[in-house]
Input
Amino acid sequence: MKFKAWLAGLMVWHGIAVADEAVMEVIPLANRPATELQALLAPLLDAEDRVIDNGSSLIIKTSPAKLGEIRALIQKLDTRLSNLLISVLQTSSKTAAELNAEAALAASRHAINMRGMVGSTEDLQNRQQHQQLRTLEGQPAHIQTGEVRPIQNYSVYGSGYGNAVISNTQMIEASTGFAVTPRLTGQQVTIDIEPWSDRFQQNGRIETQSAHTSLRANLGEWVEIAGNADNERSDSQGFGGINHSTRQNDLRILIKVDLAD
Output
């Protein structure tokens, strides 16, 4: 009897050992990048479990009991990527509150469907430039438009026979654009964005404004990510009386993300 009990116990122990033995499986992905799902699965794994990024698939090493759970979770997470339309407005005449109010008024009158790939418009009088870029969520994207001008450089070299002047032409670019990576979570989007704006001045110099920030916003809502306010005032007195001159430059960088599906 003791021998039979010992043998039965050995068989039960062996069955548990076999059941807990790790297995490996390659799970192909249809929509999401493997690095994204790997990061989402990591907190749910036991110490001996492994999830390896294999490009368009994941290599899973875990127990047979947990493999089915991980497979079902991957199926839920591997959803289709959404198309997003990113709008960046660099303006001296509009605020985020004004744009959102205008959008709400227009939406109440008729439905709006925004579509497009890449676009850029510019209002020089009001210091306004509007750029749009269509990309997939989670994917980095970049847009840039600009102008190239020739700049003449002069150098004077002295020698025993006098001074020599040497000139050369250098091409200088002033561009406006942004680099962005949007990540969608429900009706909100997390944005990592780096916008910039270059502008030629009359003296040949370039005026530059740039920013780099991460923020969270609601879909379809304008938010301000950076602003620059300059105020300049001058007074002069002459034979014709007193002249006053005031110049104000408020340049804001605004962003909005819409679903483009």
User: Anything to note?
Assistant: The longest helix spans residues 2-19. Residues 63 and 160 are 86 Å apart (CA to CA). Confidence is low (pLDDT under 50) at residues 10-19, 110-120, 229-248. The helical segments are 2-19, 34-41, 64-77, 96-109.
